[in-house]
Amino acid sequence: MNYELLSVVDENDQVFDTLPRHVVHASGLRHRAVHILVFNQQGHLFLQKRSMKKDFNKGLWDTSAAGHVDAGEQYTVSAIREVEEELGINIENSLQALFKLSPIPQLGMEFIHVYQCMHNGPFKLNNDEIDEGQWFLTGTISERVLNNDPTLTETFKTIWRQFISNS
Asked: I want to staple 19 with a disulfide (CB 3.0 to 4.6 A). Which of 23, 42, 100, 114 is the partner?
């Protein structure tokens, strides 16, 4: 059983409780997450293929790194931690906040802060989190999202649509 503690938040993203992750998910409560888009100098985006060991979206392609914001943790601190844990790199000096998505059932009831950074690799992929990773051309990603590619997570497709509309 995973006893990771998460902050439960209201519709304004204000913390009102702390509960174990499995309780938050089972109850459909609002909570916080981060997603990070890692681009290289050529403008390619690194995507991760989620581990088959994961609870959700097993084997699907997702943002470069992502995760829950732990109870008491700030979004930016969480983003830096997740990239270090999943990709084995420090992006503290290149992290840039992009936008925030509101919680809806299709996004797992998560307030999602989306960030971007630049790093050319190499990465040390966390085998418990990621089965593989690959650089993709942004045009290829846009085409896959437009065609509602079922090998991409719904969250990533939502993030990419917002990213493109903001560009």
From this structure: 23
What is the total count of domains within the chain? Answer: 1
The H or E element spanning position 155 is helix 154-166
pTM exceeds 0.90 for this model: yes
Asked if residue 38 is part of any domain, the answer here is yes
Q: Provide the token pair at 104.
A: 């809806």
Min mean pLDDT across 6-10, 30-34, 103-107, 141-145 is at 103-107
CATH number of the domain to which 84 belongs: 3.90.79.10
Count other Cβ atoms within 10 Å, centred on residue 56.
10
Residue at 56 is within a domain: yes
* Per-residue tokens: 4: 């990771």
pLDDT tens for each residue of 7-22: 999 999 999 999 999 9
121-142: b or e for each residue (b if 16 or more CB lie within 10 Å)?
eebebbeebbeebebeeeeebe
